[in-house]
Amino acid sequence: MSQKNGKEVLVSVNDLKLHFPIMRGVIRRQVGAVRAVDGVSFDIYKGETLGLVGESGCGKSTAGRAILQLLKPTAGEVFFEDRDLTKLSKGDLRRARRHMQMIFQDPQASLNPRLTVGSIISEPLEIHNVGDSASRKERVQELLRVVGLNPYFISRYPHEFSGGQRQRIGIARALATNPSFIVADEPISALDVSIQAQVVNLLDDLKAELGLTYLFIAHDLSMVRYISDRVAVMYLGKLVELGSRDDVYDRPLHPYTQALLSAIPIPDPDKEVRRERIILKGEVPNPANPPTGCRFHTRCQYATEICSQQDPEFRNLGTAVQPHMVACHHAEKFL
Q1: pLDDT tens, 125-168?
Q2: Which helix (H) or strand (E) covers residue 117, if one does?
Q3: Which DSSP helix (H) or strand (E) runs through 101?
Q4: Which helix (H) or strand (E) holds 198?
Q5: Angle CA(45)–CA(199)–CA(133) in degrees, nearest 5?
Q6: Nearest-angstrom CA–CA distance, 257 and 226
Q7: Is the pTM of the predicted complex or chain greater than 0.90?
Q8: Which of 267, 303, 233 is nearest to 60 (CA)?
Q9: I need a labelling partner for 270 at 20 to 30 A (CA). Which of 98, 179, 194, 304 fits?
Q10: What is the maximal distance between C-alpha atoms in the chain?
Q11: How far apart are CA 201 and CA 188, in angstroms?
Q12: Phi and psi at residue 115, to the nearest 5°
C-alpha cells in the first residue's frame, strides 16, 4: 500500500471523469454530455473518514458510485490497495467488491421488500461464497447485534421496520463481508433528525471497532464536521477545496466553501444575529454547458477577469505535512 504524508493511502482517485451523454433525434445521436464528475483527484487514507460535501446536483453521489465502479467512469483512475479498479476484469472487480461496500441514501428503496432481513444481509455472503448456511445465519445475527437490532428479527421484512432501523439493516449488509472501505452516500438524509445522530454515532463506533475507512457523502455540514477527519468540497463536478476538518471549517479558502459554512445555524442566538450570511447570486450553471475558467465565477463576489478565462489550479496553501488544497485564483487573500 502506497504512503503519502506519512500515512497509508487506501484509495487514490486520479482525474476521475464521468460524463452522461445527451442523446437527441430519431437515430439517437449524441449532441452533448452532462459533466457530472469532471476531473476529480484525491486520496483517502487508511482508517480515516473523508467527508465529501456540496449542494444537490454537484456530482458527489455520482463520484462515490464511480469510485466503486457501480457507474463506469468516462476517464481517470481509481486505485484501491494499489490496484486500478477501472482496468480490472469483471471477475476481478467482483472479487474486489468484497472489500468495498456502499451504504445507500434511501433505506426503503435500497432494501428488497420481497426478501427477509436475513436474506438481505446474507446475500453478499452467498455472492462471495463465504461460509455455509449455518455460519451465514450466525453471521447475520451477529451483524444485527452489532448495529443495535434484535437478532431474532431475522425473519421479518423491511416494511416492518422504521426508517432508522432500515438504515441499520443497510449498514449490516454493507458490513457482511468485512470490507475495509465503505462509501456512505448521504446515509442520514432520509431519516428523522432524532435518528440521524444515532446512525452517525453507530458509524463512528464501527469505524473504531472494525478499522473501517469511510467516504462520507453529505450536505449536512454540521454532521460532516462531527464525523470527518478531512473534508472535500465539490462544486459543479470539480473539487474546489480539500483539507483537514479544522482547516476547512475554521479557515475556508474558497468563496464557495465560505458561503456553504455561512448557512450553518449557530445555536448561540447572540452570535447568530451578529454573523454575516453570504447569499450567492444566480443559479448553479448547467453541468452540460459549464462556464469557462473557474466554474464558480458566475456566482462569486470576488471574481475578476482571470476567473472567467483560466481554470484555477488545485494547489496546496497549507503545509507539506497537513495540505490545504484549494482551486481559487484569489485564495491568498483569505489566508
Answers
A1: 999 998 899 999 999 999 999 999 999 999 999 999 998 899 99
A2: helix 117-127
A3: strand 100-103
A4: helix 193-210
A5: 85
A6: 17
A7: yes
A8: 233
A9: 194
A10: 67
A11: 11
A12: -105, 150
